[in-house]
Amino acid sequence: MKSRSLARRGILNGNPVAMVLVGLCPAAAVTTRVIDALWMSVGVFSVLLLTRVCLSLLSLLRDGESAGPSADLRGGEGAPRIRWLGALLIASCLTASFELVLLAFAPEESASLGIYAPLIAVNCIVLDRVEPAAGGKHIPTALLDACGLGLGFAFALLLIAAVREVLGAGTITLFPAGTFGGTIEIPGLSSAPARALGYAGGGLICLGYLAGLSRLLRRRPVPAAEEAGTA
Amino acid sequence: MSWLGIILTFSLVDNVVLSRMLGICPCVGAPRGMKSALGVGAATALLMSVSALAGWMIQSLVLDPLGVGFLRTPAFVLSVACLAWILEALARRTAPDLLRAAGFPVAGIALNCAALGAALLVVKGGFGALGSLVAGLSAGAGFFIVTVLLSAIRDRLEVEKVPEPLRGLPLHLISAGLLAFAFVAFDRAFLARMLHGW
Questions:
Q1: Which terminus of chain A is more solvent-facing, meaning fewer CB atoms within 10 Å of its CB: N or C?
Q2: Are the beta carbons of A119 and B70 separated by less than 8 Å?
Q3: What per-residue confidence (pLDDT) applies to A170?
């Protein structure tokens, strides 16, 4: 029961709009095509999952040791900073691996993600819970938490991409498979799309309205911190 | 590209926030008030320009000669994080009020995104040392302009009657989107006219 609620927390409830939004901002730049959003989601999901697992393993290792050379890393003023640097290093190495995999298997996609693929490393979602994750030694918990968060992120990103591509270009770009060319054209929309949604401005407006919509659907009072804008 | 071209491209035409969607978090998420917006904008702009220069140095002096271009992401991320910390320490010494006004540590993840993006963009442009610094400074200036503009818009929105679900962050994002459309006026054609006469 506890694990299920943990996974759900990421996807539905605990997926705080503000946080996912903050993580979405750099990623939303690649939501002009559904396929880009799909690859971005795969990247964020895998980097997030592996970073969490690595951090959990590391914290096991750290606590397993008695007083040793790393003793001052555990306490002291610089401890969170060192831990943060470690998390950054892990996340950025995993991101670099993702970039290489992308370059090897989907070179066109790698070109179309451009500078946004390296930015996964500093995505707020990946680094948001570094501290709790570093403290949480329970690997399945960390895994479930990361899965929920990653799926929530992927859902939001794909939703934005679908809205932007369907309305902004009148198409849905997916993988080409067999006789299927990879692009679905939507009759009526593809001849006269609202091209404004393809621009960055359209993306931001779309993001804003979707955030408002999700808040409306949840019917929750606006948290004071979010209202103040300290997202 | 001429110097004026680099400056205009990175500050207005290819604005990091409005056209690249980088660093939106500090832009729309900064605490209210013009003073804090100025602080956040200036700190991030400074970080961006230093990061751009550091990015050029790492790429052309370390990664390229050694042939380890695939290590670009970790190298850039770590250098930007360290620069952010240095900047934060400096700010704590020289302007503690500014740091408090900003409300969150300069080393925050959010700022790294803008700074890392600026470094990547500048390296992609393939400039020299001075060109990278100028491009970074221009990108920082572009960020600063947008932060201040959005802060002014937000101050106005505070007193307006708005639909309740849109209050706060959603409306800030929509404002940023509308501002982005206003900045579409600064396009390549505008740049070409500026550089080659009207």
A1: N
A2: no
A3: 82
